Automatic annotation (TrEMBL), chain A:
<dbReference type="InterPro" id="IPR050490">
    <property type="entry name" value="Bact_solute-bd_prot1"/>
</dbReference>
<dbReference type="InterPro" id="IPR006059">
    <property type="entry name" value="SBP"/>
</dbReference>
<feature type="signal peptide">
    <location>
        <begin position="1"/>
        <end position="24"/>
    </location>
</feature>
<dbReference type="Pfam" id="PF01547">
    <property type="entry name" value="SBP_bac_1"/>
</dbReference>
<dbReference type="GO" id="GO:0042597">
    <property type="term" value="C:periplasmic space"/>
</dbReference>
<keyword id="KW-0732">Signal</keyword>
<comment type="similarity">
    <text>Belongs to the bacterial solute-binding protein 1 family.</text>
</comment>
<keyword id="KW-0813">Transport</keyword>
<protein>
    <submittedName>
        <fullName>Putative ABC transporter-binding protein</fullName>
    </submittedName>
</protein>
TrEMBL record, chain B:
<comment type="similarity">
    <text>Belongs to the binding-protein-dependent transport system permease family.</text>
</comment>
<protein>
    <submittedName>
        <fullName>Trehalose transport system permease protein SugA</fullName>
    </submittedName>
</protein>
<keyword id="KW-1133">Transmembrane helix</keyword>
<keyword id="KW-0812">Transmembrane</keyword>
<dbReference type="InterPro" id="IPR035906">
    <property type="entry name" value="MetI-like_sf"/>
</dbReference>
<feature type="transmembrane region" description="Helical">
    <location>
        <begin position="28"/>
        <end position="51"/>
    </location>
</feature>
<feature type="transmembrane region" description="Helical">
    <location>
        <begin position="96"/>
        <end position="115"/>
    </location>
</feature>
<dbReference type="InterPro" id="IPR052730">
    <property type="entry name" value="Sugar_ABC_transporter"/>
</dbReference>
<feature type="transmembrane region" description="Helical">
    <location>
        <begin position="288"/>
        <end position="306"/>
    </location>
</feature>
Length: 443, 315
């Protein structure tokens, strides 16, 4: 009887040891990191091997394709799920993550471990870490700096016959556009042109309707024509800022670009479709987040010297670009918060950040991007730096999803479906957003 | 009287249990068998329905569990019924429903009529025709986006070849006039075989003797079609309409893959809109009211339709 009791106790202990997250050595745990399924995620898997070796923890990854990323992960957070210990969530989630208690506030942890937000690119700290914006309350460590920029076919831009034709038509040299008007001219010039027996088109721009695509695209025109999310002196005062004359002109510009200089059928395009169009030689330029640049550079058809990169060109009201990228947060529902914090501490180290950049991850650490060799380390490095200096981001309020969906509908209705006027679209958007903020109790 | 092993088992049942079982009425035994199903039905269907109706009168948001839930009365219903965008989605759904059903019934019945004739390769053709409905709607939506591509799409090429138009001069899913038809075409391509199969079952259930009698009365083929085939296949046709109507009212995956509800909101069907309200905007109370309105609409229409179907069957 005693023997039986001993045997069953031993097998219970063994079963518990196997099922428990604590690994056999009594130190390591199984950590799950959640992010989008894209190239940088593969680089992070590679990078995290060092962490596994050093810490003894075992890293698991839950990657979800971009179109379903927000749905899947916000469901996970809203339901208090314990799937993710670490979340590399979109910048717009930070308000909801903080206010709804999904993320752990990191200030004390940063102070205790000598991690300073002054060491990171300021725009990424504001965009990925702070809530409320402009206050020193940190909910994430900047993990992946990203911004919308442009890729162009340098080999086409440098061809003498094409340069001569452009010069004859526009009276100036064909080169990297400095303004949005120049960009439109160049895109229109290439639209429908025969190059090596193939019909090519001007530019691939974001027009996707279902998630966030067209908003991430159109803001690059709106900002530069004078669009503001709110009155800088009075929060949530939208009238005259969202639908200012400049904003209306910016929206008209984007529609004109879509109608006159994009490939036929590009009515629902986002990152993937733009990459495909560019790599298959259909377009002379593509709008896309900077994360694609390492892939373009390495592409056998359009990579190397055949492509160039430039920041979003200026408009009448200045030069801005849509911020992308994400911060890494510890999920408050995780049972492994200590190990998750260990990961963040490891990830914040300058040498790890330098390796992150080498592998194709866009580090936001000043020590990496301000290194004298950084700008020449990759053909797109300088463009990344220039672009990160001009970023603006969408609302990061807890109600960002409602604000985003309203903008998707209004903008797509005008730009792609061609319904109504730009003024009507933006007036309608003001109405939608006011309703959201009223429901939120902010107005 | 012979003594069977079953009697031995019956006699082996301990008296207290045997007495208990003997004491149950047929009705009680029936309830014991039915109760698990009823419990499941209540838990999975009725309770969520009642809960949804309750939520529809509140401002509850599932992503704000810590916020106070306020009773807002009929405000959600009022907002929905006065929202022009929602009426637009209703209109888009009605267009989609009407044309998919009309086309699928006409083509499906015609195909069934042809397949019902005995000819060589009949089985092979039936299998080929049925093939599209075996595919996943998400996959169908995805590959039709390629077929509709103005530059490389087969659909545009064929239309261009037949009409002489430039294939890249029109975009089926990017044009507000063509996109509603683009989703109708794909759904018709995919689900006409289903309607065909139902119609085929109807046609094969008509006894040959009726046609033979009509032949004796020298009724023409045309007369036979209208006075025998159509009336006798009508209950099956109506059943196909009911199935397709219910299915297409909740159409989601295929259209999301094809157009994402665009261009603009021209192909945003009610199911897509409802999903966005409930699981992207997280307006749980509001979307519950939306769901209740749709439920009442579908339930009402389906009830009227089923009554009509029963009348046709009784004839």
């Amino acid at each position: 009887m005693k023997k039986n009791l001993l045997a069953s106790t031993a097998s219970m202990c063994l079963a518990l040891a196997v099922s428990s997250p604590v690994l056999a050595d009594g130190h390591g745990v199984d950590l799950t990191l959640c992010w989008a399924a894209w190239d940088p995620a593969n680089a992070l898997v590679e990078l995290s091997r060092d962490f596994e070796e050093q810490s003894g923890h075992n890293m698991n990854f839950e990657f979800v394709p971009w179109p379903n990323f927000a749905d899947r992960m916000l469901n996970e957070l809203n339901s208090g799920g314990g799937l993710c210990d670490l979340m590399i969530g979109d910048s717009q989630w930070i308000g909801g993550g903080a206010e709804q208690g999904h993320y752990v506030q990191l200030n004390d942890f940063f102070d205790a471990n000598g991690i300073s937000m002054d060491d990171f690119i300021p725009a990424t700290v504001t965009g990925y870490s702070e809530w409320p914006k402009g206050t020193p309350n940190y909910w994430a460590l900047p993990a992946f700096g990203d911004v919308v920029g442009w890729t162009y076919r340098r080999d086409w831009f440098e061809r003498e016959d094409i340069r001569a034709a452009f010069s004859a038509e526009y009276g100036r040299e064909l080169g990297v556009p400095q303004t949005l008007d120049e960009l439109r001219d160049i895109a229109q010039f290439f639209q429908g042109r025969e190059i090596d027996g193939t019909t090519v088109y001007g530019a691939a721009i974001y027009t996707e309707r279902g998630s966030e695509g067209i908003t991430m695209g159109v803001t690059n025109a709106l900002y530069n024509y004078g669009f503001e999310y709110e009155n800088p002196d009075q929060p949530y005062d939208l009238e005259g800022f969202v639908n200012s004359e400049g904003a209306i002109a910016g929206l008209e510009f984007y529609r004109d670009l879509y109608e006159t200089a994009t490939p036929p059928g590009s009515s629902n395009w986002y990152m993937g479709e733009n990459i495909d169009a560019y790599k298959s030689g259909q377009v002379a330029m593509q709008m896309n987040f900077a994360f694609i640049w390492p892939g373009v550079n390495a592409d056998p058809n359009v990579g190397g010297d055949r492509s160039g990169y430039f920041p979003n060109p200026a408009g009448p009201a200045g030069q801005f670009a849509q911020l992308g990228g994400q911060g890494i947060s510890v999920v408050s529902y995780s049972d492994n918060q200590d190990a998750a914090l260990e990961y963040i501490q490891w990830f914040a180290q300058p040498e790890v950040q330098a390796r992150w950049w080498e592998l194709g991850g866009y580090s936001a650490l000043n020590a990496v991007v301000e290194d004298p060799d950084f700008a020449s380390s990759q053909p797109y490095a300088q463009t990344f730096l220039d672009s990160m200096a001009i970023v603006k981001d969408f609302w990061a309020d807890p109600a960002y999803a409602e604000l985003l969906l309203a903008m998707q509908a209004r903008v797509h209705n005008y730009v792609v479906a061609g319904e109504g006027t730009a003024e009507e679209a933006l007036d309608g958007l003001v109405g939608d957003w006011v309703e959201v903020f009223e429901d939120e109790g902010k107005l | 009287m012979s003594y069977k092993p079953i009697d031995a088992i019956a006699h082996a049942t301990p008296d207290p249990i045997a007495n208990k079982v003997r004491g149950l009425s047929d009705r009680a035994i029936a309830w014991i068998f039915v109760a698990p199903s009823i419990f499941l039905l209540l838990a999975v269907n009725i309770f969520p329905l009642i809960w949804t109706i309750r939520l529809s009168f509140t401002n509850f948001r599932v992503n704000r569990p810590n916020n106070d839930v306020e009773w807002v009365g009929l405000r959600n219903y009022e907002r929905i019924l006065n929202d022009a965008d929602i009426w637009n989605t209703m209109q888009a759904t009605a267009h989609f429903l009407l044309w998919t059903i009309v086309l699928q019934v006409l083509i499906g019945f015609a195909l069934a009529y042809l397949i019902n004739k005995k000819f060589k390769g009949n089985d092979m053709w039936t299998t080929i025709i049925v093939f599209p409905m075996m595919l996943s709607p998400a996959v169908v939506g995805n590959f039709w986006t390629f077929l509709y591509q103005p530059q490389i799409g087969l659909f545009n090429y064929v239309i261009g070849f037949l009409t002489g138009a430039d294939p890249s001069s029109f975009s089926m899913i990017g044009d507000t006039h063509l996109a509603p038809w683009a989703i109708v075409i794909v759904d018709t391509w995919m689900w006409t075989p289903f309607v065909m199969l139902i119609c085929l079952a109807g046609l094969r259930s008509i006894p040959d003797s009726i046609y033979e009698a009509a032949e004796c009365d020298r009724a023409s083929k045309w007369r036979q079609f209208w006075t025998i085939t159509i009336p006798m296949a009508l209950p099956f046709l109506m059943l196909a309409v009911l199935f397709r109507g219910i299915e297409n009212f909740k159409m989601f995956d295929l259209v999301v893959q094809l157009t994402g509800g665009g261009p603009g909101s021209i192909t945003t069907l009610t199911s897509i809109d409802l999903k966005r309200e409930a699981f992207e905007k997280w307006r749980t109370g509001y979307s519950s009211a939306y769901a209740v309105i749709l439920f009442v609409t579908v339930f009402g229409l389906a009830s009227i339709y089923v009554k009509a179907l029963n009348k046709v069957k009784e004839r």
